[in-house]
Amino acid sequence: MLSNYEIKRIARAIIGFTESNTKNKQEKQNEQSDSESTLSLDQVASGLDSIFGQILRQKSFKFVIQIPKLLQSLIALVNFRLGTHLREQMDLQRQQVRYLSRLCLKQIKRFGDEYVQSELIRQGFGRVLSIAFCTAGGAGGEEDGEINDGLGQIYKFLRDIHEGRYDDLYPSFQPLPLLVRRTEEQIEEEGAIEEIEAQMNNKGYYGGIKYQTNEAKEVTLNHFVNWD
């Protein structure tokens, strides 16, 4: 188990990388060499893996999620891009960074109480929920798996904050209707409602996608009707 000092050091490195990448994108100055970028991606992926391990530990979970800007950085890294011309190795590492960031956020949602759910939405977690299946392409098993998982996460998260979560394994909380509305707005802004409709005839992932699509469509449509 890492010490709090080590956890904070790793988190600061991830936050620093994210802020630097964001600044470079804004200034259009992505001029690093391939070796420098690859090294940075290796370090970030390793750091995310370490953070994920600490999230799974009850004793360190609260410390991790209270580190300033960490949630914001994890959400930013789910959308991570590096330049416009990516070599295969760098592209694979970028995908690993995105995957580990998404995995960390999924576990934070799972182990988080009402305050954590609120913070996730405040940082744009509704948009993250849409990314996996809105950006996945092709008909391969890996892409289908991401689509299926993304739809399932939308359904489960909206169900929990709409109905409340009462669980012996994870923190329980009452229904959070205001968070439902903010989540729906973020999902709609990403175009995910239309994408859910587009998946209605997708029989991939052994029929799982069609099933998850119906679940996600039902929960999103019901909530939109309720707000009307």
Characterization of this structure:
- The chain is an all-alpha fold.
- It has two domains: 1-111; 124-228, no CATH class.
- Helices cover 75% and strands 0% of the residues.
- The chain is built from eleven helices and no strands.
- It has helices at 4-27, 34-55, 58-65, 70-78, 88-111, 114-122, 125-135, 141-163, 177-189, 192-198, 208-227.
- Helix 1 packs across helix 2 (34-55) and helix 7 (125-135) runs antiparallel to helix 8.
- The N and C termini lie far apart (49 Å).
- Residues 33-38 and 224-228 have low confidence and may be disordered.
* Beta-strand share of residues: under 5%
Structural class: mainly alpha
User: What's the total number of strands?
Assistant: 0
Distance between the termini: 49 Å
List the domain count as a whole number. Answer: 2
Helix content: over 70%
Task: Give start-end ranges of low-pLDDT stretches.
Answer: 33-38, 224-228
Give a short account of the largest sheet.
Answer: none
**Helix and strand succession?**
HHHHHHHHHHH
Individual helix count: 11
Q: In angstroms, what is the radius of gyration?
A: 18 Å
Instruction: Give the overall form.
Output: globular
Q: How confident overall, as mean pLDDT? A: 82
